[in-house]
Fold:
Amino acid sequence: MIRRKKKVNLVKEFLNKGRTVSIKDREEALDYLVAFVGMIRPRLSEFENANKKFAETLQFINQQPSVLNNLRIAIMAQLINSNLVPMLTESGITVSRGAGRELYARLKHKLLPAAQDPNDFLYLLNRIFFRHTDYEWVEQLGREKWMHLFQLIGLSFSGNEPVIVKQAILSLQILSARVAQLGWENEITHNIPAQWQPPNNPFAVQQHLVYQIKELVLRQNKTREAVRELTAALGEVLAHCFELVQHIRNETAEKGASLSQTFILFQIEQKLNRMSLLLDIADADEKINLARFANLFIVVVRNENRKNSIREFLSQTTGYLAYQIAEHKGKKGSKYITSTPLEYFQMIGSAMWGGLIICFVAIFKNLLTLLHLAPFWSGFVYSINYSLGFVAIEETKATLATKQPAFTASAVASSLDARKSDEPPNLYNLAVTVSEVSRSQIASFIGNLIVVFPVTYLLAWLYDLAIGHPLVQGEKAAQLLQDQHPGYSLSLLYACNTGFFLFLSGIIAGYVQNKINYGRIGKRLTEHPVLRLSLPPNRLQKIANYVNKNGGSLAGNIALGIFLGTAGILGKIFGIPFDIRHITISAANTSLGVYGVGWAHLNYRYLANVVVGVLGIGFFNFLVSFSLAFIVAVRSRGIRLKDYPGFLRILWKYFRNHPLDFIRPRKSRNRRDPGRNGRSETDIKESV
Structure:
């Protein structure tokens, strides 16, 4: 039997033999670093043990000064003998000029990784952190622990290492030129306020200062005071650059944002952050800011592990555009959240009007089936019918229960957005907001259903009275009932499809509204040469105002109508079980089915199951739509729900103590605070 030779850790081997790493032997120094990181790296399934292994390693090197010395020499051997510029100017920084080109580059390198120069420091970093999951435990350890390690090693990048300082200055110059170039893009210059127009444009000013710093640092007779003065001035200008980026982003709340503008701002911010780190190396200080250096280390390891990740790139670059879409939905979602009894009953009344419109939509849809059109034209006319119904609900300010979740989810996520306030979110008030969303949703369901069931039955009776036979009868009527039955059909699965379409239509509405704002469509309509000659100014202005205000909602309603109208047709064309179930339409179809079958021929237990199925359809419509919208809204705002572990406990206690608050509002005891049913924060805390 052949025994495998036990692998010896190079760190312990050097310690046992009393050897010292040579600063001239770069390969040996690299192997030493690989062995040291191997002592810290946890197993793939044991990332939670990273802190324990790191602590053990720190204790080991504290007890062995020779290990610390070897570690310091090994790191300096890599820094002095490597090209640091690619790491400082490219790692974690988007280089491509467009999102499409960067996406293509990542896809290409994902299939066939790019060749690396052995002299490149990133090549060495990939040799040390070779597992694609290394960034996870590196991040889990946190900045403070890495700062402590670097402090023990005693790293410094001062005038004693001119090779490193020269590379830092060159990297600073490269990034400075790229920032200045991006700062002159049309998407940026058109949004710069008057006080920052040339010659005060900070994107241009910083480039001049970087050039002066380069000339001064490379001069033999430089003084530390002169270098510090220039670097301090550059630090102020970089702060103004950050302010300008944030100003442009704040403007997009009203003006909208494009993917191109978002991508450029994203690149500028990346480069400014890296320049701030390099500035700390370039100054005349004998010390380096360990916090910044630790941040750079963590970021570079993550970016090298994830440099070809398409998901990472899309998440970073489209996050702010998604934020604008979610923010639009959040603002609209506030109108669907009721706080007082008056608002609650107004919601029921509004939902009753919505239910009335759906009654006619369902009747017309069943009338259209009598035309026996080809599949394409059937889907086309169904889509028009649904779209007109949803637009009518929007225009009459009525409410459709299933359209609420996509908007209320964004409103709830907005209350967790730390960017809107320096204060942490109030989890007690958030629990109350969830209860308000719950009862508002129940109110709209009640309003829709108490109208849809009886009015559709009434319309079916009037049709029978006028025409001489029911709209649907016999097997067709029985099929309408079976289609809603949770046991004899895939109605609950189809309800999930509808939930996805409801969510997607909300995304489309937010996206289109964002494009209307960014493209200044209203202003362009009023200045259109043909329209100005064809329409009176007042009418043209009204059209422009309508598009500005309702364009996104109109697009979302039409999109939802198309989704619901064509889903069943596509399922038949491809021969797959794919269809939709919408609670209000299913309720109307149930009413038509009951009339067609007749009360005398109904099995009431079967009918009860159908009614339960309709309620189940509504539940899954809500659950899927709300969940997807909430996930998008939370991620686009950079919110991590794990940062609020106590929220579910607060919500559960509030529900346990006051379950009826999730169904109907309390009577307001304080007219000055209708938003919380007259209850102070102390009352809320006591209730949970």
Q: What stands out?
A: The radius of gyration is 32 Å. The chain is about 70% helix and 0% strand. Residues 157-287 form one domain.
